[in-house]
Design a protein that fits this description.
Layout (H helix, E strand, L loop, with lengths): L7 E12 L7 E2 L4 E2 L1 E11 L4 E7 L8 H12 L7 H7 L4 H19 L3 H4 L7 E8 L4 H14 L3 E5 L4 H15 L4 E5 L6 H11 L6 E3 L7 H10 L4 E3 L6 H10 L4 E2 L3 H4 L2 H14 L12 H13 L7 E3 L19 E3 L12 H7 E2 L2
Parallel strand pairs: 6-7, 6-12, 7-8, 8-9, 9-10, 10-11
Antiparallel strand pairs: 1-4, 1-14, 2-3, 4-5, 6-13
């Protein structure tokens, strides 16, 4: 079979809603609280009988329509070569979320066609297990300490919290974690752009004593000059997430020396390949990368595992709320052991969707 003999024959998209459980639920940010995870699940079938699965985040988006995403994907994809991911990225007209969900499915197909895992396609496995940063919502002093202690008991090395609703609350949450577990957890907080520059500087000064690994995107994504100024005026390391949209945005961040850590996400960057490119840029610049989590189910978690496994820059614990899901839509959900997940070794993404579970959690839209 020649490479271009294979064609995409059909595309299906479902939106699923999986409840979250304690200790993660309800997951509170400065914007909202939620106890469910919504994702779009993408299935791409080929003329050679190979099926690829993908996923993209749709949490909190208005007017979500699985049927509309499916129609958009079918109109453009059917008849195309599923193995030519470079051409897909060059020509694909989809917005980044749908693009990423389809792209994950194409990597799944490409790996299955070659008999190789995605990590092997990306160059090989350098980390067989991936460390996770357990992510939690905003909590009060006592509850933050309780969850931190639970994370230590479960073997996690790193805890990331939402923040940004109130500065005093943020400081008390950080203090509660350190009082409960000391330095047994690396600690990150994520205010999600909630602070003006002057307030972010004040917050950083107030939490310097608590030895954070970093503070993530406390200020607006633009202008980057404010991130440069924040770095100059505080000793708390700065990570950027919302500022990281694609490889070109990373180039600008690196030029301006605007961050010490960068967090890309497949559903923002447009898939696995852009996150790999971002990782290569960060590797060359000596900047650690961390895969961001959008409350991911199995296929998107698998993508994170493969990228982090194959790219040297993703050397730290990667964000995850997987521990807080009631269930997954996989036939074999990932097992978290000591705050880590083993990288799938099977061809493609290395995970299969359970159609019955997909239907159980499917919502009409």
């Amino acid at each position: 079979m020649k490479r271009n003999d294979m064609q995409i024959r059909s595309v299906n998209v479902w939106v699923v809603e999986v409840p979250q459980i304690a200790p993660i639920a309800p997951y509170r940010s400065h914007v909202r609280s939620s106890s469910v995870t919504q994702s779009a699940i993408v299935r791409v079938d080929t003329s050679e009988g190979i099926t690829g699965w993908g996923e993209h985040n749709v949490n909190f988006l208005p007017d979500i329509s699985a049927s509309r995403m499916q129609a958009t994907a079918r109109d453009w994809l059917v008849g195309r070569d599923p193995l030519n991911i470079a051409a897909f990225h060059q020509d694909c007209p989809f917005e980044s979320r749908l693009k990423s969900g389809v792209e994950l499915a194409l990597w799944d197909i490409r790996g299955k066609a070659a008999g190789l895992s995605v990590a092997e396609l990306l160059g090989g496995v350098i980390r067989p297990r991936i460390s996770l940063a357990a992510c939690m919502g905003i909590q009060n002093y006592q509850r933050a300490g309780e969850i931190a202690a639970w994370c230590v008991e479960q073997g996690y090395s790193t805890l990331k919290t939402k923040a940004g609703a109130d500065m005093d609350e943020d400081v008390e949450m950080v203090r509660g974690i350190r009082d409960a577990v000391g330095d047994r957890l690396k600690l990150r907080i994520d205010p999600n752009r909630s602070y003006l520059l002057a307030d972010a500087v004040e917050l950083c000064h107030r939490i310097e004593e608590y030895n954070l690994e970093y503070i993530e995107q406390p200020i607006a994504a633009e202008p980057l000059s404010e991130a440069v100024e924040l770095r100059r005026d505080t000793n708390v390391p700065l990570a950027l997430n919302e500022s990281v949209t694609d490889p070109s945005s990373v180039m600008q961040i690196l030029r301006e020396d605007a961050a010490e850590f960068l967090l890309p996400d497949t559903h923002i960057a447009g898939g696995i390949q852009p996150c790999v490119i971002i990782g290569r840029l960060c590797e060359a610049a000596g900047i650690p990368s961390i895969m961001h989590c959008g409350h991911d189910l199995g296929p998107k978690t698998a993508a994170m595992l493969h990228v982090a496994s194959a790219c040297p820059a993703y050397s730290l614990a990667n964000d995850s709320t997987y521990y807080g899901l009631e269930n997954d839509i996989l036939t074999e959900p990932f097992r978290i052991d000591g705050g880590t997940i083993m990288v799938p070794a099977s061809p493609g993404l290395g995970c299969d969707v359970d159609v019955d579970m997909l239907r159980r959690y499917q919502i009409d839209c």
